[in-house]
């Protein structure tokens, strides 16, 4: 028995020896495999585990008006975040954190517990400096502070529809913020921090660093002083006439620069979420309506260009009733024979219908589109509507007499302002501009948009000047636009009163109007043009364009010309305008 045990012991020792040697050989082989084949992968994995790449956000560029006044800017504000993976006690952490951040500790504890598999979670964004310091003082594991960019609009509602806004996460959502997001945003940088097993920073890897490139700045053609004049006058007119809303545009007609653009109702981009989409809609470029009589000068200019009428041409207006087939056209006053100029000055629908018949649909369509209707103007604002101009093949005999009166088409306030500027600019149509240039973060000019952009010659200079001097000035001095007159200046303008069509069927809504006026001064060398429209004024308070819109345009023009330092004409400084014809309406 003893001998058998003695024989087995060497066998066991031998077997264990071989097993040990085999295990060591396998381990050695594995070590060789790891070293030769997996070394780079494992070192990379280890390096990633102990390194944290921290983004360094670029500062978003500012948006400034034509005089450098800041309209949109960014600042750095603290936000509190959590790394739930490093939190050992969610209840305690939530209780202490909620006390300084004014949060519900039970909700916060649940949020942390549900995110234990995540490495990042916003606890509270954009906190005060005092709250951030209180959080730091707690020294809670897994809780930290990051600084985010916050967009500010220091002028609140001023030019809100043009500026647009950013989401809470810094995403551009509307307006110039969206259009020039790539320019304003810049490029984020990063830094790499080496951490210990508990993700505590040990040192910064200076070689793994990229500095952020701050965003460039956008300089506008908007002048906030003129913008204020326009907004105040528009708001007052909307309130005075109990209207649903309105839009206004102020332009420099010889350059295409937009000095002001506003809508009522408006909103504050600092709190854009408090307003419905309908209020945030930029109606001045997105809400086309039938223009009514403000459309007549463009058709009349085309008729003169085609030599189908001429100054002094006598047009019989059928004493206020003109029957065309089954259609019956009316004027607000029964006119007999009017000169071509008087058709515009007194805004005769019948006189314009007769001009339309002389031109025919093909010529009408040509000039409507040449003045820019039916296509976007190209302004640097997102969401611009092209308006409505039907293809020529869809025009009928009704179109022949409707188009000259500003019916069967829909235009935006901006399109109308651009077209009127074309007449003031010797028949040359310019692309409207709201951005003057882009300035880099170092102050260098990256892009210069200050030169006028010519779209084309629409009518000859002689025809354009005749329309302005012989007709549109007289509209203000003698006709429907007298309430837009300014002592010391010759104002050229045109009124419009358009009915609003039903959206879901043919015909027009009763007592629903868009009352408008477009005017510019000084007429011989126009420095400012104002187009203003009022939507759905209460009929009992007044609804004609000459009553509702013209006074506000006159007020804006007067303040703008004084602000720009445009001197009055010497011969008109002490002259009061005297009407040579009875009051007429439009």
Biggest sheet statistics = 7 strands, mixed
CATH architecture of the largest domain: 3-Layer(aba) Sandwich
Can you say what the CATH homologous superfamily of the largest domain is?
Answer: DD-peptidase/beta-lactamase superfamily
CATH topology of the largest domain: Beta-lactamase
Residue windows where pLDDT falls under 50 for at least 5 positions: 572-583
Q: What's the number of domains? A: 2
Q: What is the radius of gyration? A: 36 Å
What is the CA-CA span between the terminal residues?
A: 132 Å
The overall pLDDT average reads 88
Strand proportion, as a percent range, falls in 15-25%
By helix and strand content, what is the structural category? alpha+beta
Number of helices: 19
The strand count comes to 23
* Name of the CATH class of the largest domain: Alpha Beta
Question: Would you mind describing this structure in some detail?
Answer:
With 586 residues, the chain is of the alpha+beta class. The chain has 2 domains: 51-84 and 140-216, Alpha-Beta Complex (Penicillin-binding protein 2a (Domain 2)), CATH 3.90.1310; 224-572, Beta-lactamase, CATH 3.40.710.10. The protein contains 19 helices and 23 strands. Strands 2, 3, 4, 5, 10, 18 and 19 form a 7-stranded mixed beta sheet that branches. Strands 12-11-23-22-21 form a 5-stranded antiparallel beta sheet, with helices on both faces. β18 (435-439) and β19 (445-448) form a beta hairpin. α3 (90-101) packs antiparallel against α5 (129-138). The chain starts with a helix and ends in a 22-residue tail after the last helix. Residues 572-583 have low confidence and may be disordered.
């Amino acid at each position: 028995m003893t001998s058998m045990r003695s024989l087995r012991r060497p066998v066991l020792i031998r077997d264990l020896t071989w097993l040990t040697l085999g295990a060591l050989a396998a381990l050695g082989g594995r070590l060789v495999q790891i070293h030769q084949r997996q070394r780079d992968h494992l070192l990379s994995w280890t390096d990633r585990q102990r390194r944290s790449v921290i983004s360094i956000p670029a500062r978003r560029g500012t948006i400034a008006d034509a005089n450098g006044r800041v309209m949109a800017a960014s600042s750095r504000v603290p936000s509190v975040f959590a790394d739930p993976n490093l939190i050992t006690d969610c209840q305690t952490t939530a209780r202490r954190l909620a006390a300084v951040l004014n949060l519900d500790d039970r909700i916060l504890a649940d949020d942390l517990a549900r995110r234990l598999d995540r490495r990042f979670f916003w606890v509270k964004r954009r906190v005060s400096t005092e709250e951030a310091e209180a959080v730091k003082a707690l020294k809670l594991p897994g809780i930290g502070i990051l600084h985010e960019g916050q967009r500010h609009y220091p002028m609140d509602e001023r030019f809100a529809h043009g500026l647009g806004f950013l989401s809470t996460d810094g995403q551009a959502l509307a307006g110039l913020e969206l259009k020039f997001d790539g320019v304003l945003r810049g490029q984020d940088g990063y830094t790499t921090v080496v951490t210990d097993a508990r993700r505590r920073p040990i040192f910064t890897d200076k070689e793994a660093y990229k500095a952020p490139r701050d965003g460039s700045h956008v300089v506008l053609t908007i002048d906030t002083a003129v913008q204020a004049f326009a907004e105040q006058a528009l708001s007052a007119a909307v309130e005075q006439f109990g209207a649903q809303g309105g839009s206004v545009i102020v332009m420099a007609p010889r350059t295409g620069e937009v000095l002001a653009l506003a809508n009522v109702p408006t909103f504050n981009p600092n709190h854009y979420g408090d307003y419905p989409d309908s209020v945030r809609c930029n109606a001045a470029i997105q809400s086309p309506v039938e223009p009514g009589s403000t459309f007549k000068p463009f058709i009349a200019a085309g008729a003169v260009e085609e030599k189908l009428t001429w100054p002094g041409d006598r047009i019989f207006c059928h004493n206020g009733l003109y029957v065309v087939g089954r259609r019956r056209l009316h004027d607000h006053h029964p006119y007999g024979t009017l000169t071509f100029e008087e058709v515009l000055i007194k805004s005769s629908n019948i006189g314009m219908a007769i001009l339309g018949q002389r031109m025919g649909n093909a010529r009408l369509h040509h000039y409507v589109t040449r003045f820019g209707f039916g296509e976007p103007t190209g302004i640097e604002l997102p969401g611009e509507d092209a308006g409505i101009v039907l293809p020529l093949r869809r025009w009928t005999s009704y179109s022949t007499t409707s188009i000259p009166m500003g019916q069967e088409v829909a235009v935006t306030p901006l399109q109308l302002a651009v077209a009127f500027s074309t007449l003031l600019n010797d028949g040359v149509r310019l692309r409207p501009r709201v951005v003057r240039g882009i300035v880099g973060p170092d102050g260098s000019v990256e892009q210069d948009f200050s030169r006028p952009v010519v779209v084309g010659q629409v009518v000859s200079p002689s025809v354009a000047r005749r329309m302005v001097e012989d007709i549109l000035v007289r509209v203000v001095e003698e006709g429907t636009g007298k309430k837009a007159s300014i002592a010391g200046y010759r104002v050229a303008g045109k009124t419009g009163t358009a009915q609003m069509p039903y959206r879901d069927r043919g015909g027009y809504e009763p007592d629903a109007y868009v009352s408008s006026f477009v005017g510019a001064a000084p007429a011989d060398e126009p420095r400012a043009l104002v187009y203003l429209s009022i939507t759905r004024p209460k009929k009992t308070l007044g609804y004609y364009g000459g009553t509702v819109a013209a006074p506000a345009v006159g007020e804006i023009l007067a303040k703008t010309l004084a602000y720009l330092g445009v001197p009055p004409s010497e011969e008109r400084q002490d002259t009061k305008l005297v009407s040579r014809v009875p009051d007429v309406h439009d």
